Amino acid sequence: MSDIDRNPEKSWRLAALREAIDEGAVRSAQRLVNKLHPAEIAQLLESLPQNRREIVWELTDPKQDGDVLLELSDEVRSQLIREMDAEELTAAAESLEVDDLADLIADLPEKVTQQLLHNMDQQDRERLSRLLVWPDDTAGGLMNTDTVSVRADVSLEVVQRYLRMRGELPERTDRLFVVDRADRFMGTVTLSRLLTDDLDKLVGSCLDAEAPRIAPDLPAREVSQLFRDRDLVSAAVVDDEGRLLGRITIDDVVDVITEEAAHEVMAGAGLRDEEDVFASVLPASRRRLFWLGINLVTAFVAGLVVQRFEGTIEKVAALAALMPIVASMGGISGTQTVTLIIRGIALGQVEWHDTRWLLMREIGVSALTGAAIAAIVGAVTVYWLGTWQIALIVAAAMVINQTAAAVVGVLVPLTLRRMRVDPALSAGVVLTTFTDVIGFVALLGLGTLFLL
């Protein structure tokens, strides 16, 4: 269930906005748009056809443009950026914090980027350059530099006075980072400890020296796993020399988890994560043709296998009716295994060294389930066709294909992962080919051997 479904007020506002746009009530629509959070505006833009999308974008307060662009998917963001002039883009980008700008700047035209850099002070340029060093899918790409650090040799009272002088803390601050004079990370002190402990105590005596230290090149997927495992709200990003670079907060990790979930859903259908549901026909067709073409090739491979046994099918026509059953059951069994392995890979639970154990387990599971299904199919075949010979053949083919599906379901995702190919995007195509071909060969091959 989506967040909108759980929030009736938000759902009502979005429905009212769509109705106002349909009726041409521009002023009413503009008031409704500007009552929305930037993330809600982004969600609305992504859920509208392009002509209505342009209307809503025109109604959006320019002060919110930068924040809305950050929330959009890559494809929709690129489309809107192409329609904005350089002055609009520069104003939108300048309204963002440096950490947010780092996430957007790669999508901006070169002219706008140069203007932004020219308008920045030296300190902000240095912060931006430090953030842009790291790829988006690493801890360095996720981190922000708005850290509050203190020394271990000062008292909690001094720290409290320092915080009052600052006047505010960065959002989602649950702890302060403790560093030495060389800015090397020593640990953290929680705000609750700072507020409740004896004010005469030194920070060093309240220090959590075991607080997580995240390397900037750690993949974002592993960062999200660390936050899940340890129930973190924030964590320090520390370089090889121990220097504090920045921090990662839970809101960044939630974005990673959401993107991972969307990736698994879209990749399962052979689509990109950022697929725009309202994209025009031509680009959408180009993207889908690739995987449809691969599936077509695999279908022809299965067809060639069937053609090789054309004589068997002519003499034992009943086998033709049983072929889809054998192939589909193998495909379903293999899909269960593939899904299990890909989930394990995504959660960091499955590695290449687990292959042998997983292979033996899945073969055992598939052999047992295959035997049970084969017994049912065999009994139905005897009742249906009145022949135990065909029943035994289809049962044997079923067990063979189920077992083969288990082998393919384990080996293919792990092999693709080892080759740095996304298994979620391509394992299904390989699996379908194998289960179809092996199922047809097993059924028709055994039929040729024992019935002719």
How does this structure look, described?
It contains 22 helices and six strands. By secondary structure, it is mostly helical. It has three domains: 3-135, MgtE N-terminal domain-like (MgtE N-terminal fold), CATH 1.25.60.10; 149-267, Roll (CBS-domain), CATH 3.10.580.10; 281-451, Tetracycline Repressor, domain 2 (Orthogonal Bundle), CATH 1.10.357. It has a three-stranded mixed beta sheet with strand order 1-2-3. Helix 19 runs antiparallel to helix 22, helix 20 runs antiparallel to helix 21 (388-418) and helix 21 (388-418) runs antiparallel to helix 22 (423-451). The two termini are 56 Å apart.
Blueprint (SSEs and pairs):
Elements: H1 3-6, H2 8-23, H3 26-33, H4 38-46, H5 50-59, H6 65-71, H7 74-83, H8 86-94, H9 98-104, H10 110-119, H11 122-132, H12 139-142, E1 149-150, H13 156-166, E2 175-179, E3 185-190, H14 191-196, E4 213-214, H15 220-230, E5 234-238, E6 244-249, H16 250-267, H17 281-308, H18 310-315, H19 318-346, H20 355-385, H21 388-418, H22 423-451
Parallel strand pairs: 1-2, 4-5
Antiparallel strand pairs: 2-3, 5-6
